[in-house]
Amino acid sequence: MPELPEVETIRRGLSALVEGARIISVTMRRPDLRFPFPADLCTLAGARIETIERRAKYLLFGLDDGRLLLSHLGMTGAWRIDDDPFAEPTRLRGNNRSVNHDHLILGIRREGRDAGLVYNDPRRFGFVTLEKSLETAKALRGLGPEPLGNAFSPDYLAKACAGRAAPIKSILLDQRIIAGLGNIYVSEALWRAGIAPDCPAGRLTETRLALLVAAIRAVLTDAIAAGGSTLKDYVDANGGTGYFQHSFDVYGRDGDACHRPGCTGTILRMTQSGRSSFYCPVCQSK
Hints:
The longest helix is centred in the last third of the chain and has 20 residues, at 206-225. This protein is an alpha+beta fold. 21% of the residues lie in helices and 22% in strands. The protein has 5 helices and 10 strands, in the order H-E-E-E-E-E-E-E-E-H-H-H-H-E-E. It is elongated, with a radius of gyration of 20 Å.
């Protein structure tokens, strides 16, 4: 599933070409994705895309009439530009995915030039909703602070963890506590901070929580700089893959030697709430 760095990479790739474009047509090639397409989706025709923002793992297309096109990529969703004439010689020409999975096509026009803004999703776990405004978007209600924002601090995390017996990994994956974190980057951040994924959250000291906050920020920043991580399906708006998977220290590396200098440990895998956690039993402690 695309996590915060992947969604942010897609947002940045689309932003330069799509912001300011007028939607001139709406084509739905099926009635639904994870949920049915909104009944009024065709009313997008004529609206102008003013902004493309990200909240947690959601893409937010802000329209000139105040409405919001909200998109979640699910497991395999991706947006791309087809027949891009906007910024030659960049090659936003799509990717190697089958066009049979192109489920929504927005015809867009900017500066007198036309292109297609295409949503492709082989497994159809993503969804698109059309909201009256940011404030009425139900999917965004109750989300915690952004992990790269000022509201996410050691003090905030200490309050969220206080008295909690739940594993710290479960706390970090709770979107009501921190918005946008997923399995890959939580595993990587916990390794960087030297904290075991099954450590009870309430046991962590302020010092260790400060290290964890710094590790979360660092791993997300590094991943965004690398264009995210491609394990199987993820591609950015250029149809290209991310590169951060080549920098994983623990994720998917069970059986390999720990990367931490001087550590003699071997990366192990455990299952927590149905998800795989990767960690070093020697340098990650409770």
